[in-house]
């Protein structure tokens, strides 16, 4: 028997949910959603479970991740219950459920705590620079290896256990009997959705937004590869240098559009932004912009006289790697991809 939490609604509002209790179960949201099928009801089922306070039912569902928030359900809701934002809030809440450290929930619910984390990481970078007597070569050397260590450590220590917890809630705890072979044959589903997020193409009038996300994902991943593995800041190969410039410009331009869209609130998806939404797009924009300027200063041979520029880039990098990637909205990209993988496993079970 499911355990009902009568306080769940108030808890969910801390993650950005609105008055979803206004829903009177008319079904308009499900009728309008282009992703709804006879087997998958979007998003009415999640609205009902949220109203009931059925945390276990929500934890065992992939539906919050299978929704790509086109906003049509909120636009057409006659009660202004904002089911699209509820689904977004459920994703934030589920992120905190998966996170074994508990930090995701704390940072999502407390803006002062998030800002404190940003300040502490910035101070740590400055103190490190002071300890190195502002030696640019030494700082850049450590900065390069920090990226590699951070990628491996964050994934191994934080994200991988969280994915296992997600698997446990979806497959393990409900005792879904998945053939061992399926775990391997379904990997293609994971890879395809991780790089393309192609399910978003099923949303009406969402093709341009999907294309922007696709370009952003490819741009971000290739810039990460170029910076970390091709050592862009130390590279002398013109192809590598040019590739890094192109990638950073792409990230900057796409994120500028995302930021301006949130400022204008021109779409339903950007009309109710939470701090985590802003931090994600702004820090991604800063990643592309500061990386571009640092490399430009290197090519102009003026970085030595402007070490503050690299320190600013390093602050952005450390905050991105230690706060936003493991505990912020970046994880939604990861969990969405694994949700498609787990959905495939459930089909084959």
Automatic annotation (TrEMBL):
Spans traversing the lipid bilayer: 111-130, 142-164, 214-233, 239-259, 279-298, 310-328
Key word Iron-sulfur present: yes
Domain 4Fe-4S ferredoxin-type: 22-79
Keywords: 4Fe-4S, Iron, Iron-sulfur, Membrane, Metal-binding, Oxidoreductase, Transmembrane, Transmembrane helix
An MF annotation (GO) of this entry: oxidoreductase activity
Organism domain of life: Bacteria
Single GO cellular component term: plasma membrane
Keyword Membrane applies: yes
PANTHER family tied to this protein: IRON-SULFUR-BINDING OXIDOREDUCTASE FADF-RELATED, IRON-SULFUR-BINDING OXIDOREDUCTASE FADF-RELATED-RELATED
Designated name of the protein: Quinone-modifying oxidoreductase subunit QmoC
Upper classification of the organism: Bacteria, Pseudomonadati, Bacteroidota, Bacteroidia, Bacteroidales
């Amino acid at each position: 028997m499911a355990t009902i939490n009568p306080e769940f609604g108030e808890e969910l509002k801390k993650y950005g949910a609105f008055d979803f209790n206004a829903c009177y179960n008319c079904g308009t949201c499900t009728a309008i959603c282009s992703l709804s099928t006879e087997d998958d009801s979007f998003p009415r089922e999640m609205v009902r479970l949220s109203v009931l306070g059925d945390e276990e039912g929500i934890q065992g569902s992939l539906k919050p991740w299978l929704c790509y928030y086109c906003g049509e359900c909120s636009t057409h809701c006659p009660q202004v219950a904002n089911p699209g934002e509820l689904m977004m809030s459920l994703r934030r809440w589920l992120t905190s459920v998966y996170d074994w450290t508990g930090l995701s929930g704390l940072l999502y619910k407390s803006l002062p705590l998030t800002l404190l984390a940003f300040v502490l990481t910035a101070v740590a970078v400055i103190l490190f620079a002071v300890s190195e007597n502002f030696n640019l070569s030494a700082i850049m050397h450590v900065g390069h290896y920090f990226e590699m260590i951070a990628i491996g450590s964050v994934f191994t220590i934080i994200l991988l256990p969280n994915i296992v917890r997600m698997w446990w809630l979806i497959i393990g705890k409900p005792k879904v009997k998945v053939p061992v072979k399926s775990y391997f044959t379904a990997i293609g589903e994971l890879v395809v959705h991780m790089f393309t997020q192609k399910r978003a193409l099923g949303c009406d009038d969402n093709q341009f937004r999907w294309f922007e996300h696709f370009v952003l994902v490819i741009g971000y991943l290739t810039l990460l590869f170029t910076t970390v593995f091709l050592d862009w800041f130390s590279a002398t190969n013109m192809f590598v240098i040019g590739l890094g410039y192109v990638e950073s410009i792409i990230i900057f331009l796409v994120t500028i559009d995302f930021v301006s869209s949130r400022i204008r609130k021109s779409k339903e998806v950007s009309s109710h932004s939470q701090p985590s939404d802003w931090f994600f797009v702004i820090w991604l924009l800063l990643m592309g912009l500061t990386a571009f300027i640092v490399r430009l200063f290197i090519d102009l041979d003026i970085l030595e006289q402007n070490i503050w520029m690299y320190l600013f880039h390093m602050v952005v990098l450390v905050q991105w790697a230690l706060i936003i990637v493991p505990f912020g909205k970046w994880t939604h990209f990861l969990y969405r991809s694994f949700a498609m993988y787990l959905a495939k496993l459930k089909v084959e079970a």
